[in-house]
């Protein structure tokens, strides 16, 4: 069994870069805790890290879950957020390296009819597709984010929002940070 670390997005900086932990090696819980504590002293509100490595199984936390001072729960769950873009890009680039995906091919080759036929895989990766951002269309309740905080969105729901709208720019002509690009890549 290899190493598995489940963490808040901020805790990914603590991952063991390129190093697997052998079953007979131990993870020093104190060092991991010190790392999390350092993160919260430098501005991260709260962080949790679950370690599953060799024989080690533990969860550490630091900081607060809410501004009211409640500690991060040991059984807390966190949305991955934009760190998922890094993983998505890595997989797409691996597929390109294996010859399974061409970065300059239209997305339509792999996902027929999903987006404008002129948009390429590379443009999605570079956020130059011109697609409308679905995050600009999600309506928040007058109470703000809380009513939809735990809602899960299917990729098809998110992609349906921008594909019903005109492109915001010609593909390849303008960079705009846009979550839609990576939802399409993840399809």
Automatic annotation (TrEMBL):
Record domain Beta-lactamase-related: where: 39-186
Signal peptide feature range: 1-22
Keyword flag Ion transport: no
Gene3D superfamilies for this protein: DD-peptidase/beta-lactamase superfamily
InterPro entries linked: AmpC-like, Beta-lactam-related, Beta-lactam/transpept-like
Keywords: Signal
Domain of life: Bacteria
Name by which UniProt lists this protein: Beta-lactamase
Species for this entry: Lentzea atacamensis
């Amino acid at each position: 069994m290899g190493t598995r670390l489940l963490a808040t997005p901020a805790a990914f900086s603590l991952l063991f870069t390129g190093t697997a932990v052998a079953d007979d090696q131990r993870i020093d819980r104190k060092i991991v805790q010190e790392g999390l504590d350092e993160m919260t002293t430098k501005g991260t509100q709260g962080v949790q890290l679950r370690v599953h490595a060799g024989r080690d199984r533990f969860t550490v936390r630091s900081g607060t879950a809410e501004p009211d001072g409640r500690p991060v729960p040991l059984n807390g769950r966190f949305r991955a957020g934009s760190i998922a873009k890094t993983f998505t890009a890595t997989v797409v680039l691996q597929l390109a390296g294996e010859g399974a995906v061409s970065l300059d091919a239209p997305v339509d080759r792999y996902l027929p009819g999903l987006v404008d036929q002129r948009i390429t895989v590379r443009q999605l990766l570079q956020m130059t597709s011109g697609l409308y951002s679905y995050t600009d269309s999600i309506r928040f309740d007058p109470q703000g984010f809380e009513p939809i905080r735990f809602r899960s969105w299917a990729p098809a729901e998110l992609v349906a929002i921008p594909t019903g709208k005109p492109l915001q720019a010609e593909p390849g002509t303008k960079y705009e940070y846009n979550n839609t690009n990576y939802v399409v890549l993840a399809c």
